[in-house]
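[job 0412] stage=fold_complex status=start
inputs:
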Amino acid sequence: MKFWERLGKIDRRIIYIVLAVVVIIPLILTVKLPGKVRAMPRTKDVFDHIENIDPNGKRRAILISVDFDPQTEPELKPQLEAVVRHAFARNIPLLVMALPIQGTDIGIEVFTRLAEEHNKEYGIDYVILGWKPSPVAVILGMGNFIEQVFPTDYLGTPLSELPVMEGIRNYDDVGLVMDFTGSSFYAYWVYYAHTPYDVPVATGVTSVSVADIYPFLGSRQFIGMLAGMKAGAEYERLVKDKYYQDQDIFLRGTQALPALSASLLVIILFVILGNISHFATRRKS
Amino acid sequence: MKKWVPTVIFLAVAVVLIVLAIVFLPVSKSVWVWIAALLTLAIFSILYRDNPIYRIAEHIFVGLSLGYGLAMIWHMALWQIALRPLFVEGRLILIIPIAIGLLYFTRLIPKVSWLVRIPISIALGLGSGIAIPLIFQATIFEQTKASLVLPEMFAPGNPWPGIWAIILLIGIVTTLAYFFFSRKEKSVLSPVSKVGIIFIMLGFGATFGLTVMSRVSLLIGRLQFLLRDWLGIIE
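[job 0412] stage=fold_complex status=done
writing structure:
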């Protein structure tokens, strides 16, 4: 069997091993990419929008919807953590909710950990509203009166008793809805929050959804987008450079970026070799 | 080779590696991290081939997801929204929506199964009434507006927004022409639709690349968990 034929029939498990090695080595050796991580314009748009929110103004709150489950956590958690760090650094009140059931627990884990890191207090700086069934009814209802949809937070405390909710009644008091999703929940926020109530909406999505988001960016129905693990690293860099220059914080996306770049290079190589092998053997046959 | 041999070899190697890790590495002392790590490895074992360890992990995942979902729906939806307000707070008006919802179960009784049409028609009517105007506004009107090529896009010194808008417009028109099937084989639309194919292929290529990036990110995330949270090799 000739070289190219043999290459075309390579056992997939060898490819898995090569890929695992290529991912593990940069992680263990803490390889750093040459140059600085440069933020894409869509990532910068989200950062700039949050920068322009006045924490004491009318539209002072950010509503964060944790619409993902553990399957897509590696891509979306770095984005979520970076945005939360940014909002905490700027003292912006945060309202956290979830459209799928699992989102609540992910939100609780992330916010509890980061609030402790940033000395933020539950009920004063942020609130976890929790989950309610029927996304359409939830999103539309919150445009009228948030407390009508979530009379209590996830612990059962009435929202009217929480200082963070003071003066926050509906989307008119929200400067940004930030949706992190591994499915198509982003569309719900465009259809049922931005379209009828004109509230600014941005989204953090997995790389696989990026192509579906672009039409909404062109029409400015989303003010910006965080695309996959890469955007998580970009946002981490923006936030670290501005607010945490002297602090040693764990940047999940930044740590993963060299491994991501190396593995993508290897996959490109495999695609090229596979194509050469295919055409070489086809010509022969 | 017997079918069970790879499984036994995998288990033996896993046990040896775990013992070595405990002895030489600053491994996590959390039971939950250990459970998550071992289940991750069990799921990864499918990459070699189908085996009982993978199937055990798969069944645990399915059972756990279902149990978690049911418990959450009971606590955060049924109890909070329906049962507690009705039975504890005495809000009798809730009997009406609860009764309509319960009509879904009439499907199980053939004689009165026609009653299921009531909640279905309410849900369908309400859903369509809310969705159609808003989705039309968001996806047809707004998107059409966004595809317009306007003179102000060609600002002196920066004509790029205008050039992108023209390319976008060509992409929209030619792609739509490709999906216009009721035309003659050699009509005027044929060359236009061929340009559409180029745009469609570019779209497929971008989607494939992004999908690969997405899947690799998931692998990295899991390996980050194993190396950082479980084994403590990386900081």
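[job 0412] summary: Chain A has two domains: 3-31+259-284, 41-250.
[job 0412] exit 0
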